[in-house]
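Worked example 2:
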Amino acid sequence: MTILPFTGKNPAADGPVVLTVEQVEELGRELDALRDRIVADLGAEDRAYIYRIIKAQRGFEVAGRGLMYLGFLPPFWLLGTASLGISKILDNMEIGHNVMHGQYDWMREPGLNSRVFEWDTVCPADQWKHSHNYMHHTYTNILDMDRDIGYGILRMDQAQKWNPYYLANPVWAALLMVFFQWGVMLHDLETENVIAGKRKWADVKPLLQGWRRKAGRQVLKDYVAFPLLTGPLFFSTLAGNATANLIRNLWSFSIIFCGHFPSGVQTFTQEETADETRGEWYVRQMLGSANITGGRLFHIMSGNLSHQIEHHLFPDVPAHRYPQMATEVRALCAKYGLPYNTGGFFRQIGSVWGKIFTLALPPRFNRSEQVPGVIVSRRQDVAA
């Protein structure tokens, strides 16, 4: 037997969960079958859904831009800013993130094609797709491979070596939350590797060119062009646009961190995931993600990343199908004795910030989570 640190609570027993290689691969086949059923069912309902979301997003943006012309009256400024904030959240979460995962490529709609889509944020789409779609979703929660573990600036796992820099962990996290779209833009730079001399100028130069084009357009749009259009209300509109971007940043950070870093989410080493089978990949995705409970509107505003477990299992399936799939995924977790990490927003975000503060301290002050493990029989063990 090989013991992997799949440390989640077993709902059926006090001891560790023991899965044979046959069980792991059967779980993989059941998840494959679930995906196949949903993909075969995609059609008019899904097409209508994404068009409704796009219509709503554009409606909120037009309303927000229009209300800025009445920004000299505080109630209209507040309504306009809130409307723009909602528009940006929808564009980034339920439209941009999901479209760029290829969730709507089957529609053959040029405006919803993952290869050409651009979103309303400073990070160029091609750079985000490399750092997120490829690096993060391929190497989910594998230490030293998935750079989303701490984003290169935070200590979010006990396995990350501590140094005095991390005493400011809460400060770095707060800054990342406020300037989240810029942090996402810088993510593919791998700043720590540039500082360490592991990345050459030839690797960085194309990224800088992409930033100049994309971020330049965003800054011009939000902080120059639209404020100028409102004439004497320039500074009022500028403040409204900046606040709308802040609203989007705070929300996006919170939803994403709730899906990746609350209590119970697991990390893995490269050795543990070597020669990983399809079934084992599925197990890693389930144990390395967490969900947030909420109503339909909450799920829409989160881009359905409130179903982060289902998203990591099925990243190219339209996200509005995740609530439907979650019922079966949760049942499969119960069937095989695997944890299904879910909880309310305040519970999840509270545990995230608790971790941010706790891991700022030296290891001797870090208390390990005492939870049962998952023992997975690997093929070489069977042969032995």
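The two ends are 9 Å apart (CA to CA). Residues 201-229 form the longest helix (29 residues).
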